[in-house]
Amino acid sequence: MNISLEQITVRQVNGVSALKEGELHAFGVYTILDLLEYFPFRYEDYRLRSLIEVKDGEKITVQAKIVGLPVLQRYGKKSRLTCKMMVDDWMVTATWFNRHYLKEQLTSGREIILTGKWDQRRSQMTVLDSEFPDKGTQRSGSLQPVYSVGGNITQGWMRKTIGKALDQYGEMIPEILPQEIMRRYKLVSRKQAIRHLHQPGDIEEGKQARRRMVYEELFLFQLKLQAYRNINRKRNSGIVHTTDNATIREFVRSLPFELTNAQKQVELEILKDMREPYSMNRLLQGDVGSGKTVIAAIALFATVRSGHQGALMVPTEILAEQHMRSLQRMFEPFDITVGMLTSSVTGRKRKDLLASLQMGMIDILVGTHALIQDEVYFRSLGVVVTDEQHRFGVNQRSILRRKGFDPDVLTMTATPIPRTLAITAFGDMDVSTIAERPKGRKPISTYWVKHNMMDRVKGFIAREIDQGRQAYLICPLIEESDKLDVQNAIDLYIQMDQDFPNYKVGLLHGRMSAAEKEETMRHFYSNDIQLLVSTTVVEVGVDVPNATLMIIMDADRFGLSQLHQLRGRVGRGEHASFCILIADPKSENGQERMRAMTETEDGFEVSRRDLEIRGPGEFFGTKQSGLPEFKVADMMSDYEVLEIARVDAVKLVSNEFFWTSPEYAALRDYLERQQVFQGELMD
Ligand code: ADP
Ligand code: MG
């Protein structure tokens, strides 16, 4: 069989006219294969049932015998046809609306199969569909596929046409999965799976068909990702970093703590990438407080010691400040120069900074996202570390390349998601995960209380501050420009300032100038402010180990991941820490989220629940979603298969026989025709 089904146009199916062919194009159906892979999204159940097992109001299909005379009532254009039937041993009244033409066929003693809604009390059935066994049945006794249709293409036509395509071409569907995989997972053949997805004889057949196609779909998808990754690696245009382990050790030894095993592991993964001639594209994920910053510092150190420059891109000026300070502290003994560029660095200062950068007198530049754009030129940019919010799109990459850079890119995210899901959502990235927190961290106890407990909460604040600790009090802020919420923060600040005359209370919100924010944060770092009333500007990355109490007002207005981020501002030192959520959520969903927060402290678990509650679209955000559309598989519920398929795909791509052995020829052919490898790997 040399001609394949993706080369035959759908016109070749009996009954598909030129007109219909054009209409099918609207559904993305051009070839026989497209049509065969146009799967139903659900099934109508026409299997015969007995009335005994049926609940009132259910839609059912039953076999009946006509026992009475049909009665037809007309109301203008409308009509109502009733007739007595025997179903099992019950007398049932069957009712049709607007099917007056059936009257002649309802002869006493004849068998009929009825599908409709069962009204137990009246012993009555409203018939939606009926067939006479003596004329041959089509639907009865089966599960009927329901396709997405529209325009001039009806459900019935689609069923019939796909049925014909299966009859004419079904036998030509080749197997593409490797035998060993088919055997390992006991998958049905592709031929059988496609047929049974359209025409499942029974539930089990449908299930097996789906299981096979889900695996196949996810497996092919993972093969594709592996291929992209390999293409990037083959491009070989990245910087080869030469810094050796001894030099890195010197830096790591200077840190005030020992790296956790998880940190050591990701350090290895990153350094390995940096030493290779391709440009790294790696996602570093770890729960809040797992110590990602120091990993970023190691990567930056490595690039500087290889004679290049590094950039650290963060979402806010507060964070830029903080990272600037901590990097300066870490790099001071090593004579590494750190500069900072934000929108508030202007005029003469900015000019000087940019000039030093271009001359290579600044080794590391910290800043907000303007950092790699516009008039900013590095002498030699080796590594860019970014925060998730600045995830590099293809555009930004090409901006960099146009400037002559192909740096290694490390993207950090504190919204950990299951590894495979991350790989899926973040496409061609490699993923490193820190799933362990530094030793000696005390757990953060989380409580959910109602607004009427505010007095007790204040007592709690006093207790912590009297013991020398510090506290955050967060107000919701939907948007930085949301005036109302800023007002909230200001009101709350005034109130707290009155309630706690003995403490210094600070205020932080997005409408303050950069200088004001900076000053407030400096006072909080140095414990000159004990209670900080703030909007969510402190959400990401702020690190004040002496702060042990996080109070979140109207907590139900935040997403789970955001709450977890906020909670992560405490529990960063040796003291026990607390998070108090203040909320009176009305909805079940809101209450569920509050409970979830009190029940788990593990960021991965929080993400999982968040994903569950909000669904992947909202979770990932529309902009960066880039989630693949699957025909059969569901990324959430088939998540385990996705994981298995990935392992299998990685193994297969790295198996040299994959590229040559006839065993994989059908799969290679299929992938090539689907342009999965874009020709680049199929030398
Ligand atoms: P993340 O960015 O992952 O939320 P940070 O990098 O800000 O976490 O680290 C949180 C705190 O833990 C910082 O104060 C940091 O100095 C400290 N830290 C990082 N790694 C370790 C470690 N291995 N042992 C002890 N403390 C660590
Ligand atoms: Mg951080």
UniProtKB/TrEMBL annotation:
Its EC number is 5.6.2.4. One of its GO terms (biological process) is DNA recombination. Transmembrane segments: none annotated. InterPro entries: ATP-dep_DNA_helicase_RecG, DEAD/DEAH_box_helicase_dom, Helicase_ATP-bd, Helicase_C-like, NA-bd_OB-fold, P-loop_NTPase, RecG/Mfd, RecG_dom3_C. It is an enzyme of class 5 (isomerase). It catalyses: ATP + H2O = ADP + phosphate + H(+); Couples ATP hydrolysis with the unwinding of duplex DNA by translocating in the 3'-5' direction. PROSITE patterns: HELICASE_ATP_BIND_1, HELICASE_CTER. This is ATP-dependent DNA helicase RecG. The gene is recG.
